[in-house]
Amino acid sequence: MSLDFWVFGYGSLMWRPGFEFEERRGAVMHGVHRRLCIYSHVHRGTPDKPGMVLGLDRGGSCRGIGYRVAGSRRDDTIAYLREREQVTMIYKERWRDMLVDGDGKAHKVNALVYLVDQDHVQYAGKRSAEDLLPFVLQGHGKGGPCIDYIASTLDHIEELGFKDSHLSEVLTLARNQRA
Predict the structure, then answer these.
(1) Domains of the chain with bracketed CATH
(2) Predicted TM-score (pTM) above 0.85
(3) What is the pairing mode between strands 105-116 and 140-141?
(4) What are the residues whose beta carbons fall under 8 Å from the beta carbon of 143, sequence distance 6 or more?
(5) What are the start-end ranges of the H helices in 23-162?
């Protein structure tokens, strides 16, 4: 029997993991940060009208959710995540250390995570909220509107007790534009 393992969620995996897990805890991963840096051609846009989705890019740190998955579900969970996250191969599947909350202190664990591939054609890089706005407004894919994705992610970030000023700025601009 294989050992339990961890998965790090920083975007939609925080509010829609889609796999069974044993426990869910607040977590931090250092050396990467959450950013709207991927042109979405499937989940929140199309190749003709791309939306934007989150990626973990180099530098800083990112707060999110750590999921402990039973070892007996390892193969099924990884297969599911690859099907979901690797549709266009924009992410690099990696195992990285993260800190999970528990018993009043953080514990270091190794987690499966999907990092943005900066060499991929869908990588948008660091863009201002104003530059992202047209993509956020037009983006609609098989997962729904881009603006709903950003709003749901922000709701769950705030439930964890922290803020993401860049996502908040993008969402405010998009809502004001649509009003």
Answers:
(1) 5-178 (3.10.490.10)
(2) yes
(3) unpaired
(4) 12, 42, 43, 44, 149
(5) 74-85, 129-138, 146-159
Q: Which residues of 39-50 are buried (b: 16+ CB within 10 A; e: fewer)?
A: bbbbbbbeeebb
**C-alpha pair distances (Å), 101 with each of 106, 108, 124, 162:** 5, 9, 32, 14
Give me 7's structure tokens: 């998965």
H or E segment to which residue 15 belongs? helix 12-15
State the Cα–Cα distance between residues 49 and 9, nearest whole angstrom: 26
Has residue 1 got a pLDDT over 60?
no
Spatial neighbors of 77 by CB under 8 A, at least 6 apart, are 7, 19, 20, 69
pLDDT tens-place string over residues 57-69: 999 999 999 999 9
163 φ/ψ angles, rounded to the nearest 5 degrees: -120, 160
Q: Hey, what are 111's tokens?
A: 């987690």
Question: Residue 89 carries which DSSP code?
Answer: -
Measuring CA to CA, how many Å separate 123 from each of 60, 116, 179? 18, 7, 29
Contact in structure between 98 and 61 (CB atoms under 8 Å)? no
| Side chain identity, residue 118 | Q
